Amino acid sequence: MKEAEIRRLLAANLFCVLSIILTAVVPASFWDGFTVLGTHLAWLCICSVCVSTLNIILHLVLKPNLSPKRSSFAHKISRFLKCCIYFFMSCILFHAIIVLYGAPLIESVTETFLFAVLLSTFTTLQCLCMLGPNIQAWIRVFSKNGATSIWESSLQITTMCSILGAWFGAFPIPLDWDRPWQV
């Protein structure tokens, strides 16, 4: 059983990596002048949409959480709306944190918000797919030794690495503002 779960988790993560690579390669064949750096806003949108869609599809196909599901339509709609609100709140929170860490407040609001959406896609959306809008489950998973399954451990690792990667990727930038290529 555990080996099968590891294979399913590996396949899911490989699909996610493949989708990110494809978002950098496939649009260039359809869109003249597309580059990840040259058209970064479009790439952020494409990457967020592709990763979001893939995460939702993988969650529906693989069904990693075995929690008891209520079958009422009203419960499913309520849960979906809560997930949408939580995702939007995480985008706003990440945007505020990014601005507090030094991103321009007004000049680059689109770039900053799209980066916040991408970061929310890699962190919050996966948590919402796995754990739903249950705050107690989130606290349990992200507390010390709170993960009870391999999927929750992967969720911890992916979320923490996404946040740390975003921070480590941006942290040396303010050190070189006197360089002409950054002005």
TrEMBL record:
<dbReference type="GO" id="GO:0005789">
    <property type="term" value="C:endoplasmic reticulum membrane"/>
</dbReference>
<dbReference type="Pfam" id="PF06699">
    <property type="entry name" value="PIG-F"/>
</dbReference>
<feature type="transmembrane region" description="Helical">
    <location>
        <begin position="41"/>
        <end position="62"/>
    </location>
</feature>
<keyword id="KW-0256">Endoplasmic reticulum</keyword>
<comment type="pathway">
    <text>Glycolipid biosynthesis; glycosylphosphatidylinositol-anchor biosynthesis.</text>
</comment>
<feature type="transmembrane region" description="Helical">
    <location>
        <begin position="112"/>
        <end position="132"/>
    </location>
</feature>
<dbReference type="GO" id="GO:0006506">
    <property type="term" value="P:GPI anchor biosynthetic process"/>
</dbReference>
<protein>
    <submittedName>
        <fullName>PIGF protein</fullName>
    </submittedName>
</protein>
<dbReference type="InterPro" id="IPR009580">
    <property type="entry name" value="GPI_biosynthesis_protein_Pig-F"/>
</dbReference>
<keyword id="KW-0812">Transmembrane</keyword>
<keyword id="KW-1133">Transmembrane helix</keyword>
<feature type="transmembrane region" description="Helical">
    <location>
        <begin position="9"/>
        <end position="29"/>
    </location>
</feature>
<keyword id="KW-0337">GPI-anchor biosynthesis</keyword>
<feature type="transmembrane region" description="Helical">
    <location>
        <begin position="83"/>
        <end position="106"/>
    </location>
</feature>
<keyword id="KW-0472">Membrane</keyword>
<feature type="transmembrane region" description="Helical">
    <location>
        <begin position="153"/>
        <end position="173"/>
    </location>
</feature>
